[in-house]
Amino acid sequence: MGAQSPRAVERERSIDPEELRTAIAAVESRASSSSDLPPLAPEAHEAATAALRLLRHRPRSEHELRERLLTKDHAPAAVDEALERVRIWGLVDDADFAAEWVRGRRRRRGRSRGALERELREKGVAEFHIARAVSDIDETDDREQAAELVRARLARRPVDSGRGADLQGERRRLVAFLARRGYPTGLAMTVVNAELAAQVSP
What we know:
Keywords: Cytoplasm. 30% of the residues are buried.
């Protein structure tokens, strides 16, 4: 297999999980003589190999990788060297990670902007990367996303408009459903009330 320059890999952007696995395979199959980088120290090589195994499962933030490698008893200096090499290979980039995390969690789970920000902070992503990743999401977007979630939920569980107790129970369940996805209580109640009213109207 022809060797791909580490610098070329570094320039690739927004690596999704499948592309990441392909990039890892390219790195692992590259002959040492084809690389323009010096060999890693033995301990750093072990840490870099462990990092590639972790990344094969899913993209990770640099903080996540560092923490996992340290918990596997790799020496801090070896982890630093390994992560520097992984960055050069283009396999970890917190800006891309944050952008992909927001796209995926928004699309698959309907997470609110606030929830996405909290999740990225928990993964050790820097605030300026987080701000950029969520910059296209405002309160109107959150309200529209919440309404779509509620409509989809109601389509699966129609409300009986003739039973007020059930309607109240449905309202509580839907507000709790949105809260679990990070939507503020006020916004959740506004959206749920509007969608329930639309459903029970003649």
